[in-house]
Amino acid sequence: MAKTVAERADIVPVLAEIFREHGYEGASLATIGDRTGLGKGSLYHFFPGGKEEMAAAVLAEIDAWFEANIYRPLREATEPRAAVEAMCHSVTEYFHSGRRVCLVGAFALDNVRDRFANCIKDYFADWQESLAQALLRSGRNADDAADLAEESVSSIQGALVLARALGDASVFERAMDRIERRLLA
Amino acid sequence: MAKTVAERADIVPVLAEIFREHGYEGASLATIGDRTGLGKGSLYHFFPGGKEEMAAAVLAEIDAWFEANIYRPLREATEPRAAVEAMCHSVTEYFHSGRRVCLVGAFALDNVRDRFANCIKDYFADWQESLAQALLRSGRNADDAADLAEESVSSIQGALVLARALGDASVFERAMDRIERRLLA
DNA sequence: TACACAATTTACCTATTGGTACACTAGTAG
DNA sequence: CTACTAGTGTACCAATAGGTAAATTGTGTA
């Protein structure tokens, strides 16, 4: 009998992909069980809070990833312009050039927004603030930096929506080019 | 016994609001029954295809509204710059300054995207094309017009996501100002 | 006045939902 | 060798899901 012991850390990325594909309501425990290869027993062992805790864990991991790979580099870069450039490339890679949905953005439009309002808000607020900080240190004034950061974060989300709606990844790539050009101008 | 006869045309806007609030999967027939004040019998009388037909009807009505109020004016305007300006105002009003979600955008991020792929695609393609046409006739070259139109449509969606995520309508208003300025530059 | 038909109510159906209870297995520490 | 524990599998649960069937109501028209 295969006992193949699992770990929480291995499950969360799978959960993330499931929520991305099906949304919160659309991701049933049956689907989750199939895709993770875990029975309900194991699932509720790792996530006693059920689906809600699973989604929270996914959001926490996403936040940790962005903190480590996007926000902190932007905040702490000695070379802010290079950090901005690096952000653009990381983002393009992370979202598979627009073929991958932003789970936080999707949750924001869904009715689960209320349940995870804080996570969702922080995700975008942190992004905007860290980017604004890098722009500030690259020589812009505070107002321009804040405005440009807000526009960029917003545009990335819009490009993800449009790319997916049109089924055309090039929409996202064009948007990222525009954003990078404008950030470095 | 109150018989209060209903009409399909009266129901669709209510359905639209329900789908906006709860998403496709999240909008149960129970909720729909409550909010419309109609039993399942009436609902299936008007929409024999069930939930899917209800959503399709909503998307069709949205498309018709945009065709009449946004796309056609852009395409047929004798004064294209004024039409672009009018579009910006209509859009701001339609989305309640970012407090109201774009159902088509939300569906695009959801897993129901596949089911309504054509509607969703057309909505954005038509918007982009009609806007590009107005820009073209306002004196821009074809490439600039197409690019700027794509960027604008994309930015509107992004602004809706971000405004809702942050619970801050001013994000949307700033975005619309930027877009209008750039379109009329 | 009676017919036809649109609209509605009510009752019912099966599958699935998220969640619980609990017995069980396999390592591991003493 | 034994006791403990993290992880697993199975069976079960009430509630709800979307959907169906048919009897009933009212209303405009001939």
Task: Give your account of this protein's structure.
- 2 copies of one chain form a homodimer.
- Chain A has 185 residues and is mainly alpha-helical.
- Chain A has a domain at 60-184: Tetracycline Repressor, domain 2.
- In chain A, 78% of the residues lie in helices and 0% in strands.
- Chain A contains 9 helices and no strands.
- Chain A has helices spanning 8-26, 29-36, 40-46, 51-76, 80-94, 103-109, 117-137, 142-166, 169-184.
- In chain A, helix 1 packs across helix 4 and helix 6 (103-109) crosses helix 7 (117-137).
- At the A-B interface, helix 1, helix 6, helix 7, helix 8 and helix 9 of A face helix 1, helix 6, helix 7, helix 8 and helix 9 of B.
- Chain A binds a DNA duplex (30 and 30 nucleotides) through helix 3.
Strand proportion of chain A: under 5%
How large, in whole angstroms, is the Cα Rg of chain A?
18 Å
H/I helix tally of chain A: 9
Poorly predicted residue ranges of chain A:
none
Give the strand tally of chain A: 0
Biggest β-sheet description of chain A: none
CATH superfamily of the domain at 60-184 in chain A: Tetracycline Repressor, domain 2
CATH fold field value of the domain at 60-184 in chain A: Tetracycline Repressor, domain 2
Instruction: State the helicity of chain A in percent bands.
Output: over 70%
Structural class of chain A: mainly alpha
Largest inter-chain interface? Answer: A-B, 41 and 41 residues
Please state the average pLDDT score of chain A: 96
Oligomer: homodimer
CATH class of the domain at 60-184 in chain A equals Mainly Alpha
* Termini Cα gap of chain A: 61 Å
The rough form of chain A would be described as: elongated
The CATH architecture of the domain at 60-184 in chain A can be named as Orthogonal Bundle
